[in-house]
Design a protein that fits this description.
The protein has 28 helices and 37 strands. It is α+β, with helices and mostly antiparallel strands and 999 residues long. The strands form nine sheets. Strands 1, 2, 3, 4, 5, 6, 7, 8 and 9 form a nine-stranded mixed sheet that branches. It has an eight-stranded antiparallel sheet with strand order 17-25-22-23-24-20-18-19, with helices on one face. A hairpin with a 3-residue loop joins strand 36 and strand 37. The longest helix has 43 residues, at 848-890. The N and C termini lie far apart (121 Å). The chain binds alanine. Alanine is lined by residues 42, 44, 168, 208, 210, 231-233.
């Protein structure tokens, strides 16, 4: 019996050795640079650009095994996994391709040769399907495929198929075409041809041969592609099962090592291969999901709350739940399977062996956090149950008393009463129900279910799902356990609404890019020649195409209009088109006729560059059309901006090297964005980068800048370059057979002469198409601005180089000097300065390490200010008390009205207490006047209240005179505000008021 390893190898060998194909590696399962895909879902994904006619490869026939995930998106098998014998979220797809080379005849003949002649599959088991055509879509039946099959198969083994089964599409948009599928009858009698495409596990599709001829556009129309291609995909796991004589993929040797490991970890009974056994279902789910998670996380995806990350999260949670519910696994267990997958498949996919620890850690953490989610979700679910109980007992006219409700409608429980509901039943007896006691609860439902139907509302189920991350089937399960149901129909409605909402929000963001893509496909344009590595100006340019942007759509136009967003295509350009993390160039395109087009960005679709911007001067209104065919154009990039970009790009390479030296070899690039204002670099690293490590990176980079090393760019064969030890390439990025190597210090020749030496480890060597400084010196200086986490296991450093770095350092120095000067300054000045410095610090770009030092100093000085202020107010209060004492001493009669010098609204109380202590029999109205603000306080002892003087009235009188506010009770009152100029008048009025009341 062939092992799965042998089967894979024989497939590749067949197409390489017998049919002249080039073997290519699998693309990562996380697609780079294709926003239309969540995961790589077919072998052809990595060749999408070739099919669309915007990219090319140095070969016309290719073969590989591709890592695929079909979960989320157009091809989604997640919910079937575990329940049958042949669905997976992760699987390998064996494929062979023709790019405008061979077509249907060879594709079908070779498939037959391999399956029947080489592998000896019984022709009696084989069925083929072909496309029946679709007149509505203008598509013919695929008679050619039918005839080819009839060479080998009797007519009853050749079946028609409709759009759904025999017209293959990659996604909502993208390359597509009619296909022919090979199905295998696994029944012992070989008589189940009627089960082809019937969703029956006994007759399954193993190989799909697609004849790619169309592109599905965003508006759902089909357009013909420039050439015809073959794209085939064979399910590796299904093939292994068939060739190993099994009826289930899960019985092949692809899964046995995983099942053995699961049994060891969980101590469950051995896998029995039964479809309806909860234990066997859990085995299949867990094995499949562990493979999927291991591959996806290895290739750079992370569980999260959206998109691809959310799909992974759901897969992980599904695995955890099956483990918990069916195998009693309360502890994290999925992470332990990473090592098994890496061991089993690492020979074919070596990336699995790079850092399995990290992958396991990420899964482990996610399992733990899901456990917490489950615990929280269960509480929230019980609240929903309680809502129902409330509605039942309320119908008895009884208020549950297990909790109290505050004004905001929130419940608060005493710990002992959580989920305990006390109520009066129909006969007015007090009873209690513990809703966590399932048996008691079921009895309650049985007794009272007819009063209010026992249902968990759709809103609750949706909130559990949407907010608490609690899966619907778990809600249903827990409800059923208690004799309750869930309003799942209502739930589906809410889900659909949420989906529509998110679709509306997603909108047509990609339509600009898509209209450019359509344009490239429909117009044969030559590849744009980029000469901007060493030229900043091209003086003899010619416009090959003008496009106007109308409401987010580019379309061809003869003349540009002033002010309208547009795009220009030329043959040769110095403008760098946005790619590899480096932004596009900006600048101007002038015409001989005086038209000026301002380029605000440059972008590329396939090999064609588009200069995006607007026409600023010159138009059809003023005579000749701008940029007509015979116009000579001068293309000039914004050179100072470009130099800043280059300084940042070269520094990014140095930083990449420095990070590895400071943190270790695990540092791999996860993304970057380089422009004229900064560089932002994401890399794999499990914890924050400490200040001394940042310091070290800065030193390493700055030393290389100071050495003014030469930046070499050489184009060399990829094969040779890959041998250089220490070479950096972004994993999953597509590189051509001849790659551009950017090396700083040694040249590619030096490196290739001795690829095993330390040269490439101690110097920056990267595959890169970006623009760089000629030597490192002009980068001047490098500083790190910030360091943060962007995802689990991924850190982001933002840094500056060149002029902007120098400025940041200068700013920090200036602020530091300002802070140093402040020692011994008066608190008012100090406070103002500190406020101004704090504001500047939040506005300015400052080096991270300097910022921390400044913050520390600032904190110290703020402490000083606080101390000083405390002292001052103590002193002030002392002064106020002294003044109050004098006022009290000088008072004659029974009332006193006075301004307390030096007092403010707060210390006025101190003054009042002092006066009252000395002269308790006095009625007083005291005023304060500081910083242009008035404050009043009044106090009247009981005997004087009895005589008619009330503090509240007194204060209102004063406040009315100054135009302020105030009032209070008969014994005390306070107030403030109003016009200070009126103070003397007001005090006068107060005296008169008291005199009048007291007689
Ligand atoms: N792209 C084809 C498929 O995925 C082969 O079925």
């Amino acid at each position: 019996m062939l092992t799965s390893q042998q089967i894979r190898q024989q497939f590749l060998d067949f197409f390489v050795k017998k049919c002249g194909h080039t073997a290519v590696p699998s693309a990562p399962v996380v697609p780079h640079g294709d926003a239309t895909l969540l995961f790589t879902n077919a072998g052809m994904n990595q060749f999408k650009d070739v099919f669309l006619g915007v990219g090319s490869r140095p070969y016309t026939r290719a073969v590989d095994t591709q890592k695929c995930i079909r979960a989320g998106g157009k091809h989604n098998d997640l919910d079937d996994v575990g329940k049958d014998t042949y669905h997976h979220t992760f699987f390998e797809m064996l494929g062979n391709w023709s790019f405008g080379d061979y077509f249907k005849t060879d594709a079908i003949n070779w498939a037959w040769d391999l399956l029947v002649k080489q592998w000896g599959m019984d022709p009696k088991r084989i069925h083929a399907t072909y496309f029946e055509g679709n007149p509505a879509a203008g598509l013919e039946p695929d008679d050619e495929a039918r005839k080819l099959w009839l060479q080998y198969l009797p007519p009853e083994h050749v079946h028609t198929g409709n759009m759904k089964d025999n017209f293959w599409e990659m996604g909502d948009t993208g390359p597509c075409g009619p296909c022919t599928e090979i199905h295998v009858d696994l029944t012992p009698e070989n008589n189940c041809g009627h089960l082809v495409n019937a969703g029956d596990a006994r007759v399954i599709e193993i190989w799909n041969l697609v004849f790619i001829q169309f592109n599905r556009n965003a508006d759902q129309t089909l357009s013909s592609l420039p050439a015809k291609h073959v794209d085939t995909g064979m399910g590796f796991e299904r093939l292994c099962a068939v060739l190993q004589g099994k009826t289930s993929n899960y019985d092949s040797d692809v899964f046995t090592p995983l099942f053995d490991a699961i049994q060891k970890i969980t101590s469950a009974p051995a896998y029995g291969g039964k479809l309806d056994s909860p234990i066997d279902i859990a085995y299949r789910v867990i094995a499949d999901h562990a493979r999927c998670l291991t591959f996806a996380i290895t290739d750079g995806a992370l569980p999260s709350n959206e998109g691809r990350g959310y799909v992974l999260r759901r897969i992980l949670r599904r695995g955890v739940r099956y483990g918990r519910q069916n195998l009693n696994m309360a502890q994290p267990f999925l992470s332990k399977l990473v090592a098994v997958v890496a061991e089993q498949m690492g020979d074919v996919f070596p990336e699995l062996r790079e850092n399995p620890q990290r992958v396991a850690e990420i899964i482990h953490e996610e399992e733990e956090s899901f456990s917490r989610t489950l615990d929280r979700g269960i509480e929230s679910f019980l609240d929903g149950v309680e809502d129902w109980v409330d509605s039942v007992v309320n119908t008895f006219g009884s208020n549950p008393r297990g909790y109290t409700i505050n004004d905001a409608g929130e419940r608060s429980y005493s710990t002992s009463s959580r989920h305990l509901v006390h109520y009066r039943d129909k006969s007015n007896e007090i009873r209690s129900l513990d809703i966590t006691n399932i048996a008691a609860f079921k009895a309650f439902v049985a007794e009272h279910g007819h009063v209010v139907p026992p249902i968990i509302s759709a809103e609750k189920a949706f909130r559990l799902y949407d907010t608490d991350g609690f899966p619907l089937d778990l809600t249903v399960l827990m409800a059923q356990e208690r004799g309750m149901a869930v309003d799942t129909a209502g739930f589906e409605k809410l889900m659909e609404e949420a989906r529509q909402l998110s679709r509306a929000a997603g909108g047509h963001a990609d339509s600009e890019a898509e209209s450019l893509l359509n344009f490239v496909q429909q117009n044969k344009l030559p590849a744009t020649k980029f000469v901007g590595y060493d030229r900043l100006v091209v003086e003899d340019g010619r416009a090959l195409a003008l496009l106007a942007n109308r409401e987010g759509h580019f379309s061809k136009t003869d003349a540009l209009k002033l002010g309208q967003p547009a795009a220009i295509v030329v043959g040769t350009t110095p403008f760098y088109a946005e790619s590899g993390g480096q932004v596009g160039d900006t600048g101007t395109i002038h015409s001989r006729h005086g038209a000026v087009f301002r380029v605000t960005n440059t972008t590329r679709i396939g090999d064609v560059a588009f200069h995006l911007g607007t026409l600023e001067e010159g138009s059809t209104n003023r005579g000749e059309p701008a940029f007509s065919d015979d116009d000579t154009l001068v293309l000039e990039i914004d050179a100072p901006r470009r130099r800043r970009i280059m300084a940042h790009h070269t520094s990014t390479h140095l930083m990449n090297l420095g990070l590895r030296a400071a943190l270790g070899d695990h540092v791999t690039q996860k993304g970057s964005l380089v422009d004229d204002t900064r560089t932002r670099f994401d890399f794999a690293h499990g914890k924050p980068v400490a200040p001394d490590e940042i310091e070290k990176v800065q030193q390493l980079v700055n030393a290389q800048i100071a050495a003014n090393l030469t930046v070499h760019t050489n184009t060399v064969p990829q094969e040779d370059a890959l041998k250089i030890r220490g070479l950096r390439a972004v994993f999953g990025e597509k590189y051509p057979p001849k790659v551009r190597v950017v090396s700083i210090g040694p040249s590619a020749r030096d490196l290739l002469a001795n690829p095993d030496s330390d040269l490439g480890v101690n110097h920056s060597v990267e595959f890169c198409g970006g623009t760089h400084l000629a030597t490192t010196g002009p980068a001047e200086q490098f500083v790190v601005l910030s360091e943060e986490a962007v995802a689990k296991g991924v850190r982001r450093i933002t840094a500056l180089a060149g002029e902007v770095a120098r400025r940041a350092v200068e700013h920090a120095k200036t602020l530091n000097e300002r802070l140093d000067k402040l020692a011994g300054t008066k608190p008012e000045v100090l406070e103002k300065e500190l406020a101004s410095i704090t504001e500047l610090m939040s506005d300015l770009s400052l080096p991270l390490l300097e910022r921390a030092k400044l913050r520390e100093k600032l904190g110290e000085l703020q402490k000083v200010v606080k101390e000083q202020r405390k002292l001052q107010s103590k002193q002030a209060e002392g002064g106020v008390a002294e003044a109050a004492r004098k006022i009290a001493d000088g008072a004659d009669g029974v009332s006193i009205v006075a301004l307390v010098p030096g007092a403010d609204g707060t210390s006025l109380r101190v003054a009042m207490d002092v006066v009252r202590k000395k002269r308790p029999e006095l009625a007083m109205l005291l005023a304060a006047h500081t910083d242009g603000k008035l404050a009043f306080i009044a106090q009247v002892p009981d005997p004087l209240i009895a005589r008619g003087l009330k503090a509240g009235d007194w204060l209102r009188d004063v406040a009315a005179v100054v135009g302020g506010k105030g009032g209070g009770k008969p014994d005390v009152a306070q107030g403030g505000g109003g016009d200070p100029a009126k103070l003397p008048e007001a005090l006068d009025s107060a005296r008169k008021f008291a005199a009048a009341k007291l007689g």
